[in-house]
């Protein structure tokens, strides 16, 4: 097939559950490619001499190479190639914002003048990971000689899991301390089942356990054991405690009954399985008309969860315009298909309650777009006198999360920024305390799974180097050599 | 997994459990709590730690069976395991020498009060304890509270033990006799804490209360445990659980505690239908 032919093939759509049907269950929305579909989609890739897609990938997956393996039907080869750079493809294939990463840069998308028609790199990534899982036992890396070093990882989110997976391969003893009763961080308590089935996360965790990683659940470091004790008892420590502190709007009425943070709503729905109540013990607020405030993935997840919890109407209220929503395009698209109503350029100024203290409405003010702000997005400005009341019986606040203060607060030696992120060396993830590294949302603030993983990969390389050489000062320079390989 | 080393019935629907949880025991301070989850699909509930035994590596929890989880817990036996005990969570009580301290405990609230009274006495305060309950069989830990108090007064609503009346009657009486207190610590049902606070405000006695809102994670991640204290919103699990009682909005706390009342009933009925056991209170009350 020549390039022209390849260009002509339209993107292969991944079959999905019908919107009317899927809001009655919590099963995954996209059903997955068959082998034939995947091979056809893979055949759209031009195998560019200069693959721009790789430029767009935060962990530098050799995208054309893994796609070539799929095209020729060598799925084992494809997954091996993938796992050289990405240990959690079944997760990234589902939740990465590909449209602003690899797929944004893809030559096919450019040639078709529509980045939405780029090679479906994310869907192929998901396919190959799912294929591997269906084969049963994944391939184990070759056994290595134990190094005799012990590493503690605080937080079992994507950052921590990535570090664990890498360091166990280098022969270190790895213990992951997790505050909750399950591993996965946001992947298990935040992102809903219909977007990322929990058995997929569990599968990755099982695999790490199989490799010898030990998980210590129900351990809140800084409470169950002091941070200082962990730091002194292990040869190196990685902090990946995430951005788990919910922001509220600070408007009147925010403590009314029926007003919840996205974290609470999603934790009840996902980690605690409120969709299965009363077989699972944890209940959830069930509004008939639910307002979600925010425009990111978190807000989409809440609004779509509300429909599955039986809401008749689910509204997104967002203070900017749709183009400025930080959510993945696919999430916005799925939300709309399911009937979520988008109320854009509106912002709550006050919440009103009934005589029982339950929320009965939100006073919203209309906004217009003004001059660009520091993020380059046009700043929303309230239109005076445009306030009106939108009735509601539940409201979910999904306006963002800040770094979890628990570990830094109980360990003042750790340098943090004004907004609470841990300060690290960008190349190595080293913190202000010798032997202690950090990465993911606790450093970046609420970001993405793949950035957390990228941090994890780099920190794991640096930690390995530190453990084997004892070198702390100028570790980043020593890293430069290895970095060429992991970027 | 966390094993039940010892279980004992203290009263109708009231059980004391000793769980093996060495790191929690080692690092716990008075006033702190744990989040407990007793089964795979179980909910996460906060329970204040009554006591610890660091040699045995155990913590003591006293739990009143009032809903599905606590009833199911009451069916468990010594040697059984539960999947989650997370803690110690929350800020510890500020144990300081202030002079004369009034410790007021209501019903199951005597359980969290015990370690605080103990700490307050150990550091050299004069401790007067007032313990109240609806009826004598619901009073717990009286003997142990006696050990950590210089003076102890018991009241019951129905007069079956100690003086007949409410804890607030006793506070009024003591102060009326000219006794002076530098600090009051009140733990018990929100309604009791509310009225103790109304009174101590009038009497000008600074008062600390321990709040027990519904929680999920217990680590500051969800905000489910929000309480209004003065004009601030606090997360009870990380900022508390103890707050200045004169500033707490108890009506809001009580309303928030009742959010899931209908669901709690549904969960209990569902459990009854499967487990074939009931709360003592429903049995004794004959209200089946
Ligand atoms: C609802 C939702 C949807 C999202 N959707 C997407 C998406 O589609 N695509 C995407 O790329 N990103 C998405 N994100 C963002 C992404 O999930 C995060 O950027 C990513 O999970 C960060 O990983 P992490 O490992 O740094 O932290 P986390 O995933 O937050 O994990 C931190 C872990 O540390 C634990 N912990 C915290 N404190 C302690 C302590 N003291 N001791 C022990 N353990 C502790 C926590 O319990 C948690 O398990 C979403 C986030 C949310 C909330
Ligand atoms: S840019 Fe697109 S077409 Fe080129 S190698 Fe990458 S995925 Fe293939
Ligand atoms: S219980 Fe979740 S923040 Fe307090």
* CATH fold descriptor of the largest domain in chain B: Rossmann fold
CATH superfamily of the largest domain in chain A: FAD/NAD(P)-binding domain
Percent of residues in beta strands of chain B: 25-35%
Mean model confidence by pLDDT of chain B: 91
Please give the alpha-carbon distance between the first and last residues of chain B.
35 Å
Residue-averaged pLDDT of chain A: 92
Shape summary of chain A: globular
Largest sheet of chain A: 5 strands, parallel
| Rg from alpha-carbon coordinates of chain A | 23 Å
CATH uppermost class of the largest domain in chain A: Alpha Beta
Do you know the CATH architecture of the largest domain in chain A? 3-Layer(bba) Sandwich
* CA-based gyration radius of chain B: 18 Å
- The low-confidence runs of chain B, each spanning 5 or more residues with pLDDT under 50, are none
Instruction: Give a list of the ligands.
Output: flavin-adenine dinucleotide, iron/sulfur cluster, FE2/S2 (inorganic) cluster
The neighbouring-strand order within the major sheet of chain A is 3-2-1-4-16
- Beta-strand content bin of chain A: 15-25%
Number of domains of chain A: 3
Query: How many helical elements of chain A?
Result: 21
Strand order of the largest sheet of chain B: 12-11-10-9-13-14-17
Please provide a brief summary of the model.
The complex is a heterodimer of chains A (about 475) and B (about 290). By secondary structure, chain A is of the alpha/beta class.
Description:
The complex is a heterodimer of chains A (487) and B (288). With 487 residues, chain A is α/β, with parallel strands linked by helices. Chain A is built from 21 helices and 16 strands. The model of chain A has no long low-confidence stretch (mean pLDDT 92). Chain B has 288 residues and is α/β, with parallel strands linked by helices. Chain B has two domains: 2-89, Elongation Factor Tu (Ef-tu), domain 3, CATH 2.40.30.10; 100-256, Rossmann fold, CATH 3.40.50. Chain B has ten helices and 17 strands. The model of chain B has no long low-confidence stretch (mean pLDDT 91). The interface between A and B is large, with 42 and 40 residues. Bound molecules: flavin-adenine dinucleotide (FAD), iron/sulfur cluster and FE2/S2 (inorganic) cluster (FES). FE2/S2 (inorganic) cluster is lined by residues 215-218, 220-225, 235, 237 of chain B.
């Amino acid at each position: 097939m020549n390039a022209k032919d390849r260009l002509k093939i339209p993107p292969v759509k991944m079959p999905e559950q019908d919107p009317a049907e899927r809001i009655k269950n919590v099963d995954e929305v996209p059903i997955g490619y068959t082998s034939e579909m995947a091979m056809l989609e893979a055949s759209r890739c031009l195998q560019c001499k200069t693959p721009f897609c790789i430029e767009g990938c935060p962990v530098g997956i050799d995208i054309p190479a893994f796609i070539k393996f799929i095209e020729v039907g060598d799925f084992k080869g494809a997954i091996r190639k993938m796992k050289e750079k990405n240990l959690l493809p079944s997760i990234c294939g589902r939740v990465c914002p590909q449209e602003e990463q690899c797929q944004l840069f893809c030559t096919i998308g450019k040639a078709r003048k529509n980045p939405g028609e780029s090679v479906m790199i994310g869907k192929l990534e998901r396919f190959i990971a799912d294929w591997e899982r269906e084969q049963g036992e994944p391939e184990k890396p070759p056994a290595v000689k134990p190094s005799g070093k012990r590493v503690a990882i605080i937080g079992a989110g994507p950052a921590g899991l990535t570090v664990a997976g890498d360091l166990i391969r280098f022969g270190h003893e790895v213990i992951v301390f997790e505050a909750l009763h399950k591993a996965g961080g946001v992947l298990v308590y935040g992102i809903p089942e219909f977007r990322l089935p929990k058995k997929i996360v569990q599968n990755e965790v099982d695999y790490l356990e199989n490799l010898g990683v030990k998980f210590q659940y129900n351990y809140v470091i800084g409470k169950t054991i002091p941070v200082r004790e962990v730091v002194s008892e292990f040869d190196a420590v990685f902090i990946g405690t995430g951005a788990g502190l919910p922001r509220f709007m600070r408007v009147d009425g925010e403590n009314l009954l029926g007003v919840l943070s996205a974290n609470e709503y999603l934790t009840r729905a996902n980690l605690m399985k409120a969709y299965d109540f009363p077989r699972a013990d944890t209940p959830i607020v069930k509004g008939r008309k639910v307002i979600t405030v925010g425009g990111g993935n978190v807000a989409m997840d809440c609004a779509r969860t509300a429909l599955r919890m039986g809401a008749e109407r689910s509204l997104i209220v967002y203070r900017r315009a749709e183009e400025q929503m930080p959510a993945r395009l696919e999430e916005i698209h799925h939300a709309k298909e399911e009937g979520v109503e988008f109320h854009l350029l509106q912002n709550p100024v006050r919440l009103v309650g009934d005589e029982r203290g339950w929320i009965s409405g939100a006073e919203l003010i209309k906004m217009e777009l003004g001059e660009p702000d520091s993020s380059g997005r046009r700043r929303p400005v309230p239109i005076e006198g445009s306030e009106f009341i939108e009735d509601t019986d539940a409201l979910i606040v999904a306006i963002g999360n800040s770094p979890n203060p628990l570990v830094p607060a109980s360990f003042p030696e750790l340098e943090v920024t004004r907004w609470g992120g841990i300060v690290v060396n960008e190349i190595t993830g080293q913190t202000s305390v010798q032997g202690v590294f950090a990465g993911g949302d606790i450093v970046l603030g609420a970001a993405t799974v793949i950035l957390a993983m990228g941090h994890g990969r780099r920190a794991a390389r640096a930690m390995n180097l530190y453990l084997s050489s004892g070198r702390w000062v100028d570790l980043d320079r020593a890293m430069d050599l290895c970095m060429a390989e992991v970027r | 997994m966390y094993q039940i080393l010892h279980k004992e019935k203290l009263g109708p629907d009231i059980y004391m459990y000793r769980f093996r949880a060495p790191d929690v025991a080692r690092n716990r301070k008075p006033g702190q709590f744990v989040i407990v989850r007793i089964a795979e699909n179980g909910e996460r509930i906060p329970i204040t730690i009554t006591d610890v035994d660091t040699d045995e590596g155990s913590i003591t929890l006293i739990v009143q069976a009032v809903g599905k989880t606590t009833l199911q817990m009451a069916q468990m036996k010594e040697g059984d395991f539960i999947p989650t005990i997370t803690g110690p969570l929350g800020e510890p009580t500020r144990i300081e020498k202030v002079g004369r301290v009034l410790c007021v405990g209501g019903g199951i609230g005597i359980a969290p009060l015990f370690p605080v009274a103990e700490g307050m006495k150990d550091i050299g305060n004069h401790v007067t304890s007032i313990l109240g309950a609806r009826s004598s069989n619901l009073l717990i830990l009286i003997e142990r509270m006696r050990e950590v108090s210089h003076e102890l007064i018991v009241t019951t609503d129905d007069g079956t033990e100690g003086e007949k009346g409410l804890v607030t009657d006793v506070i009024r009486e003591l102060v009326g006799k000219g006794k002076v207190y530098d600090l009051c610590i009140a733990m018990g049902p929100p309604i009791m804490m509310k009225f103790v606070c109304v009174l101590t405000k009038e009497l000008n006695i600074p008062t600390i209360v321990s709040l027990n809102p519904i929680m999920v994670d217990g680590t500051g991640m969800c905000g489910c445990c929000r309480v209004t204290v003065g004009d601030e919103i606090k997360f009870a699990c990380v900022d508390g659980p103890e707050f200045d009682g004169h500033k707490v909005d108890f009506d809001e706390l009580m309303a928030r505690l009742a959010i899931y009342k209908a669901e709690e009933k549904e969960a209990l009925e569902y459990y009854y239908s499967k487990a074939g056991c009931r709360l003592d209170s429903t049995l004794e009350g004959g209200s089946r």
